Amino acid sequence: MLHSSYIEISKSALQNNINFLKQEIGPHVKLSSVIKGNAYGHGIEQFAKLAQECGVDHFSVFSADEAQRLLSAITRPATILIMGYLDNAELEWAIEQELEFFVFEPDRLREAAKAAKTVGKKAIIHLELETGMNRTGFESHTLRIAKSLLEECRDHVRLKGICTHFAGAESMQNHKRVTEQINLFNEQVEALKLEGIQAEQLHTACSAAMMTYPESRFDMVRIGIMQYGFWPSPETYSSYLGKLQRKQDPLRRLINWKSHIMSLKHVNAGDYVGYGTSFQAPRQMVMAIIPVGYAWGYSRSLSNQGQVLVRGQRAGVVGIVNMNVLTVDVTNIEGVQKGDEVVLLGIQENESISVASFAELSTQLNYELLTRLPMNIPRMIIS
Ligand SMILES: *Cc1c(COP(=O)(O)O)cnc(C)c1O
């Protein structure tokens, strides 16, 4: 089946990024590869296999369905941690599969112990603490309940981790709040320890925290965006570069989103192109029709704004992005032909379209843009 576009995932780029991250955290901190959001748009199945080949053996997902997809894709045993959604009905399955999961309220802890008893295996849990994000996590005043529950359920629950998540470590604007979160986490861990509650590992850091707050690394870091070759924010990137002699990005992007020219069209000066009147040709022009539109995540807000690469040169989007096609101006691209490769995102010869530039124009974050790449675009591994 030929698709109108496809996404290439580069193995050497991933290996490069994993090497960089491991070097950054050193041998005593574990790396968990965060693959929620369809592996940030890269495709859970394809990405996980590749990550294992690059030496990853710990994955964090958001939900049970992602864990299920991961389980069926991997070729070697791995530790799988569910950080978010897990229905009570799925608890027994998760425990049976020895999946690890966040426990963020007393009720979940009770249910986990109950399910573990039925299954006859211990639930492997990570106690999530509320330290200031105000999303999920045991609040200080519920820690006493956690403690007595943990004691009560000792035979059915293994406390593998204690963890928390930061409310925006990628921006210095949140510096005070994040620092307070780290302090509160340390205090609560200490308090639990005094009460005899101790976990095998502590973990709090996402990509930005790992880079900006080394004291947040503890025993494990949960890394999403950076393994895919993107920085959590321009701020995190420039503060890292500031410390370097040789100002060069150590990360490489894995993703290239490609299509090809479906048809060429010559238009005369004064002609309108596409729906409505948003673009009128100022001169004789050559347009290339590309079989990708907003149905595949190429945002309509890139109408008359986005750029793609053809024969190593930039070509601007002309007119409105349609559901299934977009039109670009290739008037000045010599030798352009029907069937030519088109790069929507990524590198071609010496030019590149970065997600950041793409995202800025369409007012989406790197994170959002990547994860919105539809699942039904085929992903292909390249070296
Ligand atoms: C998404 C997520 C991460 C990874 O964040 P990145 O910024 O992509 O590194 C870590 N921990 C939790 C709880 C998350 O939800």
Automatic annotation (TrEMBL):
Pfam families referenced in this protein's UniProt entry, alphabetically: Ala_racemase_C, Ala_racemase_N
Molecular function terms, GO-annotated: alanine racemase activity
Lineage top rank: taxon: Bacteria
E.C. number: 5.1.1.1
Chain ranges of the Alanine racemase C-terminal domain: 254-382
Chain positions found as N6-(pyridoxal phosphate)lysine: K36
Annotated catalysed reactions: L-alanine = D-alanine
Top enzyme class: isomerase
HAMAP family: Ala_racemase
Protein name (database record): Alanine racemase
Underlying gene: alr
